[in-house]
Design goal:
Blueprint: H1 14-31, H2 35-41, H3 46-54, H4 73-86, H5 93-107, H6 110-122, E1 127-130, E2 146-150, E3 153-163, E4 171-177, E5 187-193, E6 200-205, E7 217-227, E8 231-232, H7 238-274, E9 276-277, E10 280-281, H8 286-314, H9 320-344, H10 355-363, H11 373-382
Parallel strand pairs: 1-4
Antiparallel strand pairs: 2-3, 3-7, 4-5, 5-8, 6-7, 9-10
Helix pairs in contact: 1-4, 4-7, 5-6, 5-7, 7-8, 7-9, 7-10, 8-9, 9-10, 9-11
Bound molecules: flavin-adenine dinucleotide.
């Protein structure tokens, strides 16, 4: 894995480095050549998920007994990094392996884990998580989706929006109110198996500023029957489970941020050294050299902070405030760096055929999802 420091991060061991090489090859050969098509169709081919699964690139941290890689967060993180470096944001593996699988591992019953995780690791089952609703994004305890117990089932009614992998998901963790009077203690997580579920409907695949190959969608539930056995953890414990897992989700976003900005910088240095203006390489201009020197500094310091956070997380010592710092600061840097890199490409930077344009547009959502950056600052301030 090549990084801004030039060295392999301490959290990447030999096995991680080997996995990184497999992942890089996979994205270069199986994904990057098809990016434009994935953008147009607004999703990646199912086959891509299956190929990733066959190569061991999905659910790397899931224990082997459930079909996963039996690794640590580091193994998933090298795969996320290689994907971000490649410029692909269509394959929703950060949600699939970085959010959904860890929820199932942490809170699923033996039966649930054995039923769903092997398919997720193989790429046969695509996972998604439905928290956001038209009236509840940041303010999650305001979700309106209702799950009412009726015998052996819950009856699910409501809707979700902005759901990554929404159009293709087979397994959806739905955040729903099981006891509307109980506030945050009335929120539960239900696992909906979407195939042929009566009353479940997928809405539009949303038109976005970037991330065009990602099937972000609206979802609707109209008296959908979910077996009571599909409750994840305890009834009413949904909010607490979500809060406990937030540092991981924020770190996944931060991992992607740093890998993407490292790639943007590399592309821009190459461009500045090869593009001629006024009979000399762009790189010979003092402004360009200074700009790149500043960007290289931002990217390097970002890498160092990220690596520290990943090491802490693997050691079980990443506190929520530091995870929030990583999320807001690294995604802010990602947006600033890709913007300044794009500028150095001139008009070419604005053209979709240039990777930097994709890196710039795709970066923007990073400041919004996973808890907005304003929320991150609010959380940090509470720790001060
Ligand atoms: C590409 C993409 C993919 C996504 N994928 C998923 C997914 O897979 N699953 C899912 O459930 N959701 C997903 N989301 C939704 C995302 O998590 C929400 O958009 C996000 O949480 C913000 O909620 P909101 O859009 O309702 O904005 P709002 O909550 O309406 O916020 C609007 C603005 O107000 C600010 N604000 C709100 N409350 C406060 C506060 N207390 N203090 C300071 N400022 C505040 C926000 O920071 C923001 O700037 C995705 C979004 C995008 C763009």
């Amino acid at each position: 894995m090549s990084t801004a420091t030039g060295a392999r991060p301490r959290w990447v061991d030999d096995e991680g480095a080997a996995l990184s090489a497999v992942a890089r090859d996979f994205f270069e050969t199986e994904v990057v050549p098809h990016l434009d098509r994935f953008d147009r169709q607004k999703h990646v081919d199912r086959e891509v998920w299956r190929k990733a699964g066959a190569l061991g690139l999905l659910c790397c941290e899931v224990p082997e007994e459930y079909g996963g890689g039996g690794g640590t967060f580091a193994h998933d993180a090298v795969v996320f990094s290689e994907q971000a470096r490649s410029g692909d944001t269509g394959l929703g593996n950060s949600v699939h392996s970085g959010v959904v699988a860890p929820y199932l591992v942490a809170y699923g019953s033996e039966e649930q884990k054995a039923r769903w995780l092997p398919g997720m690791a193989a790429g046969d089952i695509i996972g998604a998580v439905g928290m956001s609703e038209p009236g509840a994004g940041t303010d999650l305890k305001n979700v309106r989706t209702r799950a009412t117990r009726s015998g052996d089932h819950y009856v699910l009614n409501g809707s979700k929006t902005f759901i990554s992998n929404g159009a293709q998901c087979d397994l959806l963790i739905v955040v729903a109110k099981t006891d509307p009077a109980a506030g945050r203690d009335g929120i539960s997580l239900l696992v909906l198996e979407t195939a042929g579920a009566p009353g479940f409907r997928r809405g539009r695949v949303l038109d976005k500023l970037g991330m065009h190959g990602q099937d972000t969608a609206e979802l609707f539930f109209d008296d959908v029957l979910v077996p009571a056995a599909n409750l994840l953890g305890e009834e009413g414990a949904g909010f607490r489970m979500m809060m406990r897992d937030l540092p991981r989700e924020r770190l996944v976003i931060a991992v992607n941020a740093v890998a993407a900005m490292e790639r943007a910088l590399e592309e821009t240095i190459t461009h500045a050294k090869t593009r001629e203006v006024f009979g000399a390489p762009l790189f010979s201009m003092q402004h360009v050299k200074f700009e790149l020197a500043e960007l290289a500094t931002v990217v390097r310091t970002s890498r160092v902070f990220l690596d520290d956070c990943v090491e802490r997380f693997i050691a079980g010592a990443l506190d929520p405030a530091t995870a929030s710092m990583a999320k807001w600061w690294l995604t802010q840097n990602q947006c600033d760096v890709t913007d300044r890199c794009l500028q150095l490409f001139g008009g070419y930077g604005y053209m979709r055929e240039y990777l930097v344009s994709r890196l710039y547009a795709d970066a923007r959502a990073q400041k919004i999802y996973g808890g907005t950056n304003e929320v991150m600052k609010d959380l940090i301030s509470r720790s001060l």
